[in-house]
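pipeline stage [seq->struct] | target=Multidrug transporter EmrE-like cation transporter | organism=Sphingobium jiangsuense | residues=122
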Amino acid sequence: MTLRLFLLILASVSLSALAQLALKIGTGSAAAARANGLGGEMGGLLQSPMVFVGLGLYGLGALLWLFVLGRAPLSLAYPFVGIGFILTMLAGVLYLNEGVSAARVAGTLMIALGCVLVARSA
């Protein structure tokens, strides 16, 4: 695997993790609309700028992923999506003050180890 390909994979996965963070923030800002039922909640989501930021980040990540898929075997590229679990967990802890259990950290580290093993097998 070339450094350029690895960086494309990392950028795509990172954009997806940032998208998750933006969507979570966006859904939090729409929480007040939940009292008005599903229609009110959907309206609140559609008015949240962070929801649109999240969707845009997903779109950019998907475009980068298309470049990755055009240059790497799927069986090599796809396991790196697991890095997104790590990045998303870290974003939740660092930016949303979410707590994590030892079991969650251990599971996330297992995912990371799997990504390393897959990358080294190429």
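stage status: PASS
auto-comment: The chain is about 80% helix and 0% strand. The chain has one domain: 3-120.
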